[in-house]
What we know:
Layout: H1 2-24, E1 30-36, E2 39-45, E3 50-55, E4 58-67, E5 70-75, E6 83-87, E7 93-94, E8 100-103
Antiparallel strand pairs: 1-2, 1-8, 2-3, 3-4, 4-5, 5-6, 6-7, 7-8
Amino acid sequence: MIGKFLARTLLAALTISTMIFVSGCQKVSGTYKADMMGQAMTITFKSSDKADISFGGTTGETTYKVDGQTITLQPTTGEKQVLLLTIGHDGSLTNAAGMKFTKQ
Length: 104
């Protein structure tokens, strides 16, 4: 009797722990678009750590890392200015200035 109770309790704890871990792992993929002063700015996530940012006819490659609800994009060439984005509950991405990128 106690053995079955213990087994069920451990199974429930393992299930809940797995659900919490998986829900905390955010993934991004595809292309996201925002309007910046009347021009489209896009971020295309290409692989597990590479993305392209395009604006005004120029495209630059970045690396990115997802940590919880935050995405850090680091350009690989030129100015090394980091871009931080927050993953919203609706799946959109927002920067500190309030620019909202929506998945295309």
